[in-house]
Amino acid sequence: MAAKNIMIVGVGGQGTLLTSRILGGLAIAGGYDVKLSEVHGMAQRGGSVVTFVRYGDKVAEPIVEEGQADVIIAFERLEALRYAHFLKKDGALIINDWRIDPMPVVIGAAQYPENIIETLGEEHRVYTVNATEEAKKIGNPRVFNLIVLGVAAQHMDFTKEQWYEVIEKTVPPKTIEINKKAFDVGYHL
Amino acid sequence: MSEKVIMLGNEAIARGAYEAGVKVSAAYPGTPSTEISENLVKYKDSLYCEWSPNEKVATEVAIGASVSGVRAMSCMKHVGFNVAADPTYTVSYMGVNGGLVIVVADDPGLYSSQNEQDTRMVARAAQLPVIEPSDSAEAKEFIKIAFDLSEQFDRPFVYRTTTRLAHSQGLVELNERKEIEDKPYEKNIRKNVMMPGNAKLRHVEIEKRNQELAEAANTLPINRVEMNDTKIGVITSGIPYQYVKEALPEASVLKLGLVNPLPRKLIEDFASKVDTLYVVEELDPVIETQVKSWGIKAIGKEIFTVQGEYSANMIRQAILKEELDISKPAEAPGRPPILCPGCPHRGVYYVLNKLKIHAAGDIGCYTLGAVAPLSVVDTTICMGASISSLHGMEKAKGKEYIKNWVAVIGDSTFLHTGVNSLMNMMYNKATGTVIILDNSTTGMTGHQDHAATGKTLQGDPTYAIDIPALCRAIGVKNVVEVNARDIQAVEKAVKEEIAKDEVSVIITKTPCVLLDKSKKPLYQTHTDKCKKCGMCMKPGCPAMTKNADGTISIDDTMCTGCGLCASLCKFDAIELVKEGDR
């Protein structure tokens, strides 16, 4: 299989690393070669962060090139906009319909773009979820990323059981149930 | 077959060191090298590892362990290698007893650094061999090879990685640890006492050893020829090798694992078999310059940049001249890193901004106080430079000139090299105010312990250096401790200390908010009471958003309940809605 290219984009501190670990675990369970590339350090402090996940028969580079992503999972609208040009022509863009103002917007030096989802929808296959609100409904706003992942799972080639198995292995033991519940919310949306 | 697991490059380096039989490792945290030690400590039953106060100390610890006869290493980021330069240049003359490896992580693209220096250049200047892996699997195997070669050729080795290797994950096959018998220690002052007469002879000796290694490099398996179509030949190493394989699957490749010294015969032979030879290396033209100096025709930095990271697309465009059908990135406001919601530095910077004070800055999370709206930090150079550069200003312009200046430095950075600069202020009769932003951790690198936290890398309790007492011992009379969250107290302290014609140290001691696991309070705004004055927005908290009507909202998923915004609101429009544990 030619390498599948997944990207997870968001704001430092949103838990992109946990999500990428789950995707990496899935690829291994599927018997694939896999490489992931993450951002640690300064950008984790509220900056724009991107994680690349590639899996297939043989993977050389650990990054996804512009124009080659099969799926982009965006935890925030502006970050979806920033990285959308990495998508393949027929790629899927999963967006958490959530806004976090970057500092230039907070201090009035820049405007937060309007109608991001509509604009991106004109050119790409876009699927949205307000995962932060959905997560609050099930009692824990922090598990929003598993809800987004559940939506993304609808567009990927793994079974629900495979997802469950990896989630169980990856998240802290005490949080397995709430994370699986969150995944279900996204998976059935 | 043994188990295959997915590992971060840095985790694989740690595993490789464990398998190589390393007995001692010392490091100072620095992105992208930090996770090596954090993973090495998993093997604490088999080896000793520590956080040292800086990279020079760490490297000297490793040298001592090597002299005593065990395999040892030190780990650091590229700029840390500068701090370790003094022992490094001289241990190059000494050679090793137990194998010695210095792991240095470069940061092409400056993800978390103040410069983009190329460690291969520094290592070449120190005449040290350099080994470089290209993925997690090699990261683990190459460190074992580095130790073997170090002992075989009596050379300390530099093991170079980059951010993209250190922070990428890939599959790794686990092996057992090889228990290495300690080498006997024999007193040998000609080898280990680097006074002029001995060092002069050692310089001759290491030239010889390096030449032997260069000869052996022609047949080392880590220097590998992958012969394919001969129209294009590429010499490459490290992560760029992966980009080359992705972009040019048909090309012939000479993949170097040992990047200093270079295997001249192997390169000449490879060059003679291909029509056009390219050298693909990130940062400086280290391989290219040497290859060309041997009269070999090659193309490198004529078509590639010396800045940032490469990619397969970049190679397709540069070598194949492919026109890639890529849409342009959308216009989007930038999202630079910022101080976290509830960061104790924010209130201190708010006060400095309000008092129109300039800060000579340092290396850590608090460097982020340079950007708007706080805009307090005027300079950032290297670890410890805040205090000494403030001293330089005072000596240049006099004590009145720095009445609206302070130095700001973190607790870990203060112990790293800042303390030397404070000694200098006292010794050379300086005046000036130093603020130690003590958040009880090494923050930016992801919360590592240090000599004043009371915990070792193993997590064991230990003696904690008393920073106020240390400052007093140096001779500072004015040592003031304040709670960083009490902005009135911070303001009072800054005003009082700056007015003095003496050295003052203000220690704002409040733990990093990310370490605080207690239940957080929550604040919310009453839009009906909000007068839209904007006071609460001045500290630049990312949990706060200005609504279309000018009122303010607080994101309840981000607010940590520090209360800084509420303390600034004169109209009681920001209210505590949920009590926390503090």
Automatic annotation (TrEMBL), chain A:
SUPFAM superfamilies listed in its UniProt record: Pyruvate-ferredoxin oxidoreductase, PFOR, domain III
InterPro entries: IorB_Oxidoreductase, Pyrv/ketoisovalerate_OxRed_cat, Pyrv_flavodox_OxRed_cen
Protein name: Indolepyruvate oxidoreductase subunit beta
Keyword Ion transport among record annotations: no
Gene3D superfamilies: Pyruvate-ferredoxin oxidoreductase, PFOR, domain III (3.40.920.10)
Domain Pyruvate/ketoisovalerate oxidoreductase catalytic span(s) in chain numbering: 12-187
Sorted UniProt keywords: Oxidoreductase
Organism: Dorea amylophila
Automatic annotation (TrEMBL), chain B:
Listed InterPro entries: 4Fe4S_Fe-S-bd (IPR017896), HACL1-like (IPR045025), IorA (IPR017721), Pyrv_Fd/Flavodoxin_OxRdtase_N (IPR002880), THDP-binding (IPR029061), TPP_enzyme_TPP-bd (IPR011766), Transketo_C/PFOR_II (IPR009014)
Catalytic reaction equation(s): indole-3-pyruvate + 2 oxidized [2Fe-2S]-[ferredoxin] + CoA = (indol-3-yl)acetyl-CoA + 2 reduced [2Fe-2S]-[ferredoxin] + CO2 + H(+)
Protease listed as a keyword: no
UniProt binding sites for [4Fe-4S] cluster 1: 530, 533, 536, 569
EC number: 1.2.7.8
Annotated keywords: 4Fe-4S, Electron transport, Iron, Iron-sulfur, Metal-binding, Oxidoreductase, Pyruvate, Transport
Domain of life of the source: Bacteria
Domain 4Fe-4S ferredoxin-type, first and last residues per copy: 521-549, 550-579
Cofactor annotation: [4Fe-4S] cluster
Residue positions binding [4Fe-4S] cluster 2: 541, 559, 562, 565
GO MF terms held by the record: 4 iron, 4 sulfur cluster binding; indolepyruvate ferredoxin oxidoreductase activity; metal ion binding; thiamine pyrophosphate binding
Signal sequence, start to end: none
Cofactor note (record): Binds 2 [4Fe-4S] clusters. In this family the first cluster has a non-standard and varying [4Fe-4S] binding motif CX(2)CX(2)CX(4-5)CP.
Presence of keyword Iron: yes
Family matches, as Pfam families: Fer4, POR_N, TPP_enzyme_C
UniProt cross-references to PANTHER family, sorted A to Z: 2-HYDROXYACYL-COA LYASE, INDOLEPYRUVATE FERREDOXIN OXIDOREDUCTASE ALPHA SUBUNIT
Function: Catalyzes the ferredoxin-dependent oxidative decarboxylation of arylpyruvates.
Subunit: Heterodimer of the IorA and IorB subunits.
Identification of the protein by name: Indolepyruvate oxidoreductase subunit IorA
Primary gene name: iorA
